[in-house]
Amino acid sequence: MSSNQHPMLNVAVKAARAAGAIINRAALDVEAVRISQKQTNDFVTEIDHAAEHAIIDTLLGAYPDHGIWAEESGREHGRAASDHVWLIDPLDGTTNFIHGFPVYCVSIALLVKGRVEQAVIYDPTRNDLFTATRGRGAFLNDRRIRVSKRTQLKESLISTGFPFRPGDNFNVYLRMMADVMKRTAGLRRPGAAALDLAYVAAGYTEGFFETGLSPWDVAAGSLLVTEAGGLIGNFTGEADFLEQREVVAGTPRIYGQLVKLLSKYSKFASAGEKAEVRQNTPQVVEPALEAGIQADDPPPEAIPPQPAGE
C-alpha cells in the first residue's frame, strides 16, 4: 500500500486483497465450492459470504462508526446513520467464478454523504488493483490511467451485460444491442460490471452500458471512470444514476454517442419514445421458446449481425 494514498483507501485495499486471497484459494478447487441460487440465474457461493465477511471485518476494524451496504448482507453491519457508507460487492462475476471463467473481481466504494469518494476494484486472477480517490486521479497498480483517446463509435470496443433475470425484456435488449453493435468495432460481454467500468477507465474499452445493476456493482467503477477523464450516467445522460438500474459510461465523446443511441430505451424516456421502441421491437425470443428452442440459442435471424473483424 502506498503512503501517498488516502488512509481510507489504504484500508479498502487491504480489505480487497484479503477477499481476493479467499477467492484465489477457492478457485484452486472451484468444484468443491457450495453454491446456492438467489433467483433464476443469480447465484451466491460460500466464497461470496466469506469474502464479504473479510471485507467488513477489515473496514469496521479500522472505522467502527462507518456504515456498510453489502450485496449479500445488506445493511446489517456498521452504523446505518453514518455519513460514511461502504458499498461492497465481494465477488462481482460469481457465475464466471463457479465455472472457472477467470473474469471476476472485488469491488469496494466509500460514499461520504451520498457521494463516492474512494474506490477499489481488485482482480485476483491477474493481481490487478484499480484505485481512485476523488480529485486525485485513477490508478492501476500505482500507474495513472486515462480513458481511451478514440472519439468515433465505429472505432470503439464497447462492453455490456445481457439480461438474465425473470421479467427482463430480452426483445428490447436485442434491439438495443443491435443499435450499438452495428455502429462499433465490437461488443463484448465479460460478465463482471465492476471490471467493465475499470476497463473503461484504463482505456481497454471505450464504453459500457447495462441495465438492472445495483449500486454496489457500479459505485467503485463510477469513480474510476470519472477520475480517469470519462463520463458516466443513466441512459438519458443524467449523472444521478447510482440507484436507477441503468448505466452508460465512456470516454467523453463516446459517452455522448452512446447516450444518443440508448436514451430511447431509458425508463426515463418520453412516452412517445417508449411507444416507438415497443412498436419497432420484433418479438424474437418468446416464439423461439414456444418452438422448443433455448433462450440462449435463438434462431439465426434473431441475432443482430456481427461487425467485420469479430
UniProtKB/TrEMBL annotation:
Classification via InterPro entries: IMPase, Inositol_monoP_metal-BS, Inositol_monophosphatase-like, Inositol_monophosphatase_CS, Inositol_monophosphatase_SuhB
The UniProt record lists the keyword Ion transport: no
Catalysis: reaction(s): a myo-inositol phosphate + H2O = myo-inositol + phosphate
GO-annotated molecular function: inositol monophosphate 1-phosphatase activity; metal ion binding
Enzyme Commission numbers on file: 3.1.3.25
SUPFAM superfamilies: Carbohydrate phosphatase
Region called Disordered, residue ranges: 287-310
Positions of Mg(2+) binding: 71, 89, 91-92, 217
Cofactor(s) required, per the database record: Mg(2+)
GO biological process per UniProt: inositol metabolic process; phosphatidylinositol phosphate biosynthetic process; signal transduction
Biased composition (Pro residues): 300-310
Keywords tagged on the record: Hydrolase, Magnesium, Metal-binding
Record family assignment: Belongs to the inositol monophosphatase superfamily.
This protein's name: Inositol-1-monophosphatase
Source organism of this protein record: Ramlibacter monticola
